[in-house]
From TrEMBL:
It is an enzyme of class 1 (oxidoreductase). It comes from Klebsiella pneumoniae subsp. pneumoniae. One of its GO terms (biological process) is DNA replication. Coiled coil: none annotated. GO terms for molecular function: ribonucleoside-triphosphate reductase (thioredoxin) activity. This is Anaerobic ribonucleoside triphosphate reductase. Its EC number is 1.17.4.2. InterPro entries: NrdD (IPR012833). It comes from the Bacteria. The keyword Zinc does not apply. The keyword Oxidoreductase applies. It holds the Pfam family NRDD. Keywords: Oxidoreductase.
Length: 108
């Protein structure tokens, strides 16, 4: 579901690399896209972990990211998992919420 957005981001970065005549435009675009995707899921992780309901509880959230095999889908999966494993804050804590999971019928 998000893979087309990753693809568009890659195209944007490749175009910038070509405009600036960066020798390895493909590598530049891939590196920038990987960082952008990781940063996006880091922001999402932070936002979800700082949500609170009216009575002070944190909502239960599940990220389903499928088993997509394209480069874009795998980048999404890796970004979600790397952020979950890394944790948040200076102590790199992970609260366990949101849950992560994959489904054979879903794609990233």
């Amino acid at each position: 579901m998000l893979a087309p957005f990753v693809s568009e981001s890659f195209k944007k970065h490749r175009k910038i690399a070509e405009e600036w005549q960066i020798p390895d435009a493909e590598g530049y675009a891939r590196a920038r896209t990987e960082k952008e995707c990781y940063d996006a899921f880091q922001s999402l992780e932070y936002e979800v972990n700082t949500l609170h309901t009216a009575n002070g509880q944190t909502p239960f959230v599940t990220f389903g990211f499928g088993l997509g095999t394209s480069w874009e889908s795998r980048l999404i999966q890796q970004s979600i998992l790397r952020n979950r494993i890394a944790g948040l804050g200076k102590n790199r804590k992970n609260r366990g919420v949101p849950e992560t999971g994959c489904s054979r019928s879903a794609t990233a």
